Prior knowledge:
Layout: H1 11-37, H2 39-46, H3 50-74, E1 78-83, E2 93-97, H4 104-111, E3 116-119, H5 121-125, H6 130-135, E4 139-140, H7 145-157, E5 162-164, H8 182-190, E6 193-202, E7 220-226, E8 230-231, H9 242-273
Parallel strand pairs: 1-7, 2-5, 2-6, 3-4, 3-5
Antiparallel strand pairs: 6-7, 6-8
Helix pairs in contact: 2-3, 3-4, 7-8, 8-9
Amino acid sequence: MMLRDTPGYNWLDYGWRLFGTGLSFACFGLGGVLLSLTLFPLIRLVSRDRDTTRRRIQRAMQYTFRVFLWQMTTLGVISYEVSGRERMAGRGQLIVANHPSLIDVVLLIALLPEVDCIVKQALWRNPFLRWPVAWADYIPNSGSAEELVASAAANLRSGRSLIVFPEGTRSVPGQPLNMQRGAARIALAAAAQLVPVTIVCQPLMLAKTQPWYHIPPSRGHWRLVVGEPLPAAQFTGAGIPEALAARHLTQFLVEYFSRSVTAVTQQGANAAASLTPNCTMP
């Protein structure tokens, strides 16, 4: 049965969420341009050195993303919850997460006052975003893989945390997780502690195969579950080549997230099933 043929479907709610989704992304884009021309240059101007600039810009990024999420939740477009947030509080941690939706990085940065991330080279060519991205000292994914690993590992060793999506791009709905070895190579090179974050959205929204205007019958609810920290050093040892250690760590991450996504999805389904018709999401 098509959605339009569903008896009793609340089209007013659907229309409002569609409007709210479009409005939110329009405000996000226009706000990004405005901040790139005003607040971010001002922060750079009044900061005494590069490190101070980086920290202030990253905090400004966090507040910006928090406002964006506040707007989407206030409009009733999305909702979200976080479990185990305190596990991300340490310094020099590699935060690895699966990547089901367009706003995963927004959710993570909104939770962390200072964190590095790897950004697409296209942002460095954007006339409005290139300078804020550079001042935040985010890592471009241009250049060789060796250069990227070395730069990311150096930042981790200096006590800066980093967000990485091992899949490299958003997950394909219904397909097994496919993770690259970049995150494992970075973790091993820095002897870092990994903090796994499982992200699940139910019903699925803003996925790789979905345009922003293809919204689900009810608002998307994100669940972020932060797992126990994992030392990368446990995958190394005498006589174990780095390439083999990276392969083992990557396979561990694939198996971990496959199990965790299934478990969190089932928990969400059970929670939804237990709601009465008069209940609403928090």
